[in-house]
Amino acid sequence: MKKVQQGFTLIELMIVVAIIGILAAIAIPAYQDYTKRAHVSEGLTLASSAKTAVTEYYATKGSWPGSNASAGLPSTISGNAVKTIAVGATSGVITVTYKDQVKNDAKLTLSPTDGSGGIQWACVKGTDMEDKWLPSNCR
């Protein structure tokens, strides 16, 4: 009678483990960037109400608000990955400050300009913010 081989050899198992290790080494950094990009997007979503308030203030008064209170916003706006959202003292600039989920105190600034037919918003990243974390509408 012939003996039938059962199971895998040690070499075959080591090759499979090596392939899984290579795939994990590639996938983990990509996933970390994806989660940081999602957290940055959370800040932009929370800032949308501030953008609306700044736009309405400018439309009614002809000048930019100088703070959250003057724009009719709560004094603190925060979220899971967002530390604060603040309307600046000049030009209606909105600053989104992030927590450790992105990078502690990383900032993203939304600057309004009065264009023909409406307010245009520009994203300006702070020094701690990396380009790969920005959503596509801010690149």
List its traits.
about 140 residues; Glycoprotein, Type 4 Pilin; 4 strands; about 20% strand; N_methyl_site
Any overview of this molecule?
- The chain crosses the membrane at residues 7-31.
- Keywords: Disulfide bond, Fimbrium, Membrane, Methylation, Transmembrane, Transmembrane helix.
- InterPro entries: N_methyl_site (IPR012902), Pilin (IPR001082), Pilin-like (IPR045584).
- Belongs to the N-Me-Phe pilin family.
- The chain is of the alpha+beta class and 139 residues long.
- The protein has a single domain (10-138), classed as Glycoprotein, Type 4 Pilin.
- It has one helix and four strands, in the order H-E-E-E-E.
- The model has no long low-confidence stretch (mean pLDDT 91).
Main β-sheet, in a few words?
A: 4 strands, antiparallel
Question: What is the domain total for the residues?
Answer: 1
The CATH homologous superfamily is named Glycoprotein, Type 4 Pilin
Please, what is the average pLDDT?
91
> Which ranges are low-confidence, i.e. pLDDT below 50, for 5 or more consecutive residues?
none
CATH topology type: Glycoprotein, Type 4 Pilin
Relative strand content = 15-25%
Helix amount:
25-40%
User: Could you give the order of the helices and strands?
Assistant: HEEEE
How far is the N terminus from the C terminus? 69 Å
Counting DSSP E segments of at least 2 residues, the number of strands comes to: 4
What gross morphology would you assign?
Answer: rod-shaped
User: Largest beta sheet: what is the strand line-up?
Assistant: 1-2-3-4
Keywords: Disulfide bond, Fimbrium, Membrane, Methylation, Transmembrane, Transmembrane helix
Protein name: Prepilin-type N-terminal cleavage/methylation domain-containing protein
Transmembrane segments: 7-31
Pfam family, one: N_methyl
